[in-house]
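Handout, section B. The chain below has 182 residues.
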Amino acid sequence: MKIQNITNTNNLYKPSFGSLNFKMHQYMDCNGKMRISQCTTAKRDDLNYDNAADIIIQNFKKYNTVKIMPMNVSDGTEAYFLAESLVRKVGFDEFKKRFTPIVASDIYAPVIHSYPNNGIVLLSDDEITPFKNDKYKLLKRTNKKLYNKYILNPSDKNKKLYKLIPEFKDCFTFMVTDFQKR
């Protein structure tokens, strides 16, 4: 592996992974400091959701309930992929009983109010694969036209719109908050 020197640490205009029509926004954090953030979405290749699920299951097996609280979730994709791995490993009933609600948060209200609060997510064909192979059918393909007012990037033609089944949507609570405050 070749490691290169860092020559530019300013990543304000290049998202680190897939994005919702990459948009930078500023906000005041809980300490009164002006921050800059980006809204992103995608199945992150740098996270192994199955390994994370295994670690959660193994390390918390003696507990009846486990509180999962992902932060900076943008449209919820990371929380959904982790949940899908847990569902596949322990079953939907056990997942609901032990691991929900998953309380996810992000600072950028337009994304939270558009996607998670409406139970919708844009995914590429590669990203939907785990959900297609899941016997519980947690996501269903839906028509973008039905949700045009919520889609922040209608020009993304490579992604399709999916809606969480109601039982899966009920497993999540989304909130708008600064992760430092939380």
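Note. The first helix runs from residue 49 to 59. Compare this with the example in section A.
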